[in-house]
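Hi X.,

You mentioned you wanted examples for the new student's onboarding notes, showing what a folding record looks like when two proteins sit in one file. Here is a clean example. The first protein comes first, with its sequence line followed by its structure tokens.
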Amino acid sequence: MGKRAVVVNFTIVRTIGFALVVIGFFMPVVRVLVNRTGFQLANGLIDNNIVMGVLAYAVFVTAVIGLVIGVLMMMSRRTKISAGTGWIVLLVCIASGLIVFFAGLNSPSLQNGGIFILIGWIVALVGQVLARGK
């Protein structure tokens, strides 16, 4: 018996990463006085600083866009999305989240949802890099 080559579709890996970010946004993300989901955090930030609130929502929106793009690419081989689009969506998602975390929050404590988001960013980044390397 010969060995079979294992083919990994890195679009799936990237899509799983974006799915983790979306799931993490629904979970308690940070502890600022009390545990807050991503939506509660974004609503609270909008009341104080609209830019930080919009950036918090940008994490969720860009993750959903990345998830939709990934599903479309997996469903049809004819769906062509430029590599630049994938990078832009991923980098906006990561950058907006990091800006909110470091500039918009005062001494936050990362909760399970925040860890899911971090893992999702890492998985999506690895999938994006490896998908373009083949």
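Then the second protein repeats the pattern, sequence line and then tokens:
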Amino acid sequence: MNTRSNPDMSERAEIPSNRDGFGELRQAIGNAHASGNLVLLGELQAKYRREVRVYRESARGRTAHASQPVAHTRSVVRAPEREIAGVLLNFSPQPTVMENGEVVMLDVTPESLRGWLRDTDPTDVPLVVEHETAPCGHFLRFQPCNAYMEGDPVPQGPGEGWRIMPYIETVAVVDDSPAGHLCLRGVDDGTLPGFSFKGHIVRSHDTGLVKRGLPLIECDELEILEAGPCLDPADKGAVITLVRGKQPRWQQAQAAVEAAEQLRAMRPSPSRRGGPAQAWRPAFGR
């Protein structure tokens, strides 16, 4: 990624590098993203993924032809020192801005993503920051999971008084580039605490209900176009829990503060039975 400065040096802008021959296509993706044309954005991203796949396989001596189907189980090169992991999304109604600009409560269900999870290679999904940057990484895995929370009982739950809360965990790797290292630093210090995704709603229907003052829309089919760390995720439970294989520093600091508060709450209160002149001192075992 190169940078350029305006003559007055008041603003710096990033321009995609064209060393690999894909700079113009990345620029077109950025323009489609800026214009809000999600249909064109999806088409350009699909074209970019296809051409990058051919480029990578050609570089490995395994030239791929566009007419040949590409398996979704090809080997993935791991780079733990540049990986982040956490909850991509929780299957529950979340405030969402629709393509027409309307703000609704969108209920994304496990069924709405089943087809996309089956047909999508995670490495084809670009990782972006705040939905404003060029791709600076890609995903490695999407794993549907279930959590059991206190609430209404479920037939296969751990016991009565529990309910299932489905969600998707993910692992992503950032590029070994200045943008990628800035992304890692933001995740580690809490500037980018969670994941956010942008998707294309293929089918949905209005439930006629209102939740938290917004119309409740249920998504029937969804395709995720991009995802990545975000400053203020709409889904507060979509937290990034690992960076470089460790808990982010901001979470470690938060855990230390909470532990100190618990110890403070457990500390015995001073006894006043001996009068105001008697000071409380800790009693050690003899």
